[in-house]
Amino acid sequence: MAASFFGEIVEPASRAFFDFGEDDFDEESSAEKCEFKITWKTEALRYDTVLVFHGKISNAFADRSFFDQGLCCGTVEKVTKQSLKKDAATFYSLQNDILALSVTAVEDIHSVPFIDCLDEIISKTKRVVVICSLPAARYLGEQRIEDGLLRCLVTSAKIEDLKIRCTTLEQPNFVPGVPAAFMSYCCLKQKPGYLLLCYSDDDPDVVDSRTLLPFNPIMTCPLFKSICKREHSSKLTGSAYGNIYM
Q1: What is the pTM of this model?
Q2: Of 73, 84, 90, 93, which has the fewest CB atoms closer than 10 Å, so is most exposed?
Q3: In degrees rounded to 5, what are phi and psi of residue 211?
């Protein structure tokens, strides 16, 4: 089931989903305005697939499963009007045709300039896959969330070879900020896009293998199997990888 991203499942946190004029953003203070700049550590290549990880638990999953298999090849720097600089995201080259992006410091209100900064990259890719983690309190539904809950949304231009057993996100749930901006971009450009949302009650600052259980269906997909050389296990053992037990 494809989602209509201009409907009620999306909150107006991302301007990419709505035809707002510039006057609608007059309330944004100069202190909040910023721009983003990409710095490459290696030569920028053309990638078929861009994987985006957004949220602490999602990034912990990627760090556990993928990032140590790849090469950190660049960063996205956030620059404010006061010339304050901060790393907002990091690029990892996982394979010759797969680029991962770990988004760690982009507020919802800055999601549009962030996507604008990435336009040259994602406009050339064949597909975009976004994996996002959200607090369980943001899920609007009757299903209880104990060990996490995985939901998905896809654009009308479907990714045929990305098959993950996952229920489509129900209405009236919405997609916030950066994930919404990526999916809106894919819709407008008629580019295949796939969004996976993980809802969890767990403390995002204390991540262990139980926290990562909802991501297990993702590892059955050939795309993710191809870039994860380490066996993905849901069992807790005595060896720790940071705060993540392996």
Answers
A1: 0.79
A2: 84
A3: -60, -35
The per-residue pLDDT for range 155-213, each reduced to its tens digit, is 877 666 677 888 899 988 989 999 999 999 999 998 999 999 999 876 666 777 777 88
Residue 168: what are its φ and ψ, rounded to 5°?
-65, 140
Tell me the three-class secondary structure of 132-172, residue by residue: EEEEHHHCCCCCCCCCCEEEEEECCCCCCCCCCCCEECCCC
Cα(68)–Cα(130) distance, integer angstroms:
19
Percent of the chain surpassing pLDDT 70: 74
**Residue 74 is encoded by which pair of tokens?**
């660049």
The 10 Å Cβ neighbour count of residue 227 is: 17
- The dotted CATH code for 47-245 is 3.40.50.10900
pLDDT at position 218 is 84
Q: Does residue 75 contact residue 85 with C-beta atoms inside 8 Å?
A: no
Indicate the DSSP class of residue 24: G
Task: Show the CA angle centred on residue 37, arms to residues 75 and 5, nearest 5°.
Answer: 90
In terms of DSSP H, where are the helices of the chain? 56-65, 111-122, 177-189, 222-225
CA–CA dist 187, 222 (Å, integer): 24
Assess contact for 154 and 195: CB atoms under 8 A. Answer: yes
